[in-house]
Amino acid sequence: MLKTRETLGQTIKRIAVGYAGWFNWKYGRSGHLFQDRFKSEPVETDDYFLTVLSYIYQNPVKAGICNRSDKYEWSSRKRIGKCEFVDDEDLFVVAPLDLIKVREQEEIDCDILEPKLARGRAMTDGAVLMQIKSLGKVASVSEFQSLARELQSSTISMLQEKGASMRQISRVSGLSRGLVTRLCRKGAK
Q1: How far, CA to CA in Å, does 31 sit from each of 21, 35, 37, 56, 181?
Q2: Are 120 and 162 in contact (CB under 8 A)?
């Protein structure tokens, strides 16, 4: 029997497809490995631009890295007026600095992009991580990912009752948003 040699590209594709299949099996996922990880929407209005800008600036705050966005060392917010890569003049035409500060405060006060549950105040990512470890009786997120689905489901349900959003639980736990949604429904039954 004559064997044909596989090209480097075919070899890498075979390895990548095999890894994606294993990863999906191990973590109860489906589809492409990086499916639904990122989302993009056109920014067509100045108001939406301000919302997106404040969301970006607030990421380190929501992740518990700092208390204020202008204190985060790597933030473009901290570098306003000091960075040659950001055209501040054009930015401030669309979004004056005072308006950016007001919108950021609204983001902090109202949590525009991830609404609080009616039951209580939303949790920080750090608090969600602590709760995952405590409720799941694990030392790390990777241990939580390895738990039985029933234990993950009950932990996720308790986190939601405490005010964590499914998006936040997904982000902190490393589980896909679809899996978090399914587990939450399962835990509610």
Answers
A1: 9, 7, 12, 28, 16
A2: yes
Q: How confident is the model at residue 81 (pLDDT cuts 50, 70, 90)?
A: low
Residue 105 tokens, joined: 């405060």
Q: How many CA atoms lie within 13 A of 182 on its CB side?
A: 10
Domain positions in the chain: 46-110, 125-188
> Which residue intervals of the chain are DSSP H helices?
8-27, 46-62, 88-94, 97-110, 125-136, 141-146, 149-161, 166-173, 177-188
**pTM (2 decimals)?**
0.40
Tens of pLDDT, residue by residue over 90-143, are: 777 777 778 877 777 766 655 444 443 333 456 788 888 889 999 889 988 888
